[in-house]
Amino acid sequence: MTGSSSSLTPRGSSSPADAFGLPVFVYGTLLDEIFVVRLLEHPVSAQRARLDGYRVETLPAFDWPVLVHDPAGSVDGLVYRGLDAEDLRRLDLYEGTAEGLYRRVGVQVVAEPGTAAETAWAYLPTGKTLSRLG
Predict the structure, then answer these.
(1) How many CA atoms does the CB half-sphere of 124 hold within 13 Å?
(2) pLDDT digits (tens, 9 = 90+) for 6-41
(3) Where do the DSSP E strands lie in 23-113?
(4) Rounded to two decimals, what is the model's pTM?
(5) What pLDDT is recorded for position 84?
(6) What is the rounded (10 degree) CA torsion for 59, 65, 69, 75?
(7) Whose CA is closest to 106, among 117, 121, 116, 96?
(8) Most C-beta atoms within 10 A of its C-beta, which of 13, 77, 84, 94?
(9) For 18-133, CATH number?
């Protein structure tokens, strides 16, 4: 974990961290809002956002986007707001957290230019996933 990530780590849908109602920062396949609506089975509130200190890489064999720590990097994406514990459970399943492919951690994102950074969940690849970068 880098200095730009918080120590928030989910422990399941009953986690106190989940109760904060943090937005979720997305940067890859979850940018498709129509897909997310189908996955969560309800409309979502999305806002453009930026995550500094990372860049996106693609796993060549799988065509999966992953965030890689890069102090000079910046990733444009979206934040989804108003998600509940069931939504986070579905996103965790989609991202493969149980299989150890990604982990959901708190990061600092900027949702609007000139506004203060806020904490949001993001799915970061685990060592297991990064080993596939080659």
Answers:
(1) 22
(2) 333 333 333 444 445 899 999 988 999 999 999 999
(3) 24-26, 45-59, 64-81, 102-110
(4) 0.82
(5) 94
(6) 150
(7) 121
(8) 77
(9) 3.10.490.10
Q: Is 116 helix (H, G, I), strand (E, B) or coil?
A: coil
User: Residue 80: which of 68, 94, 59 has the closest Cα?
Assistant: 94
Is there a contact between 29 and 58 (Cβ–Cβ < 8 Å)? no
CA 116 vs CA 39, 108, 133: distances in Å: 30, 9, 33
What is residue 37's DSSP assignment?
H
Asked whether 132 and 123 are in contact (CB, 8 A), the reply is: no
What residues contact residue 71 under an 8 Å CB cut-off, 6+ apart? 53
Domain ranges (residues) in the chain: 18-133
According to DSSP, the β-strands at 118-125 and 24-26 are parallel
d(CA 32, CA 34): 6
| Distance separating alpha carbons of residues 54 and 67, to the nearest angstrom | 6
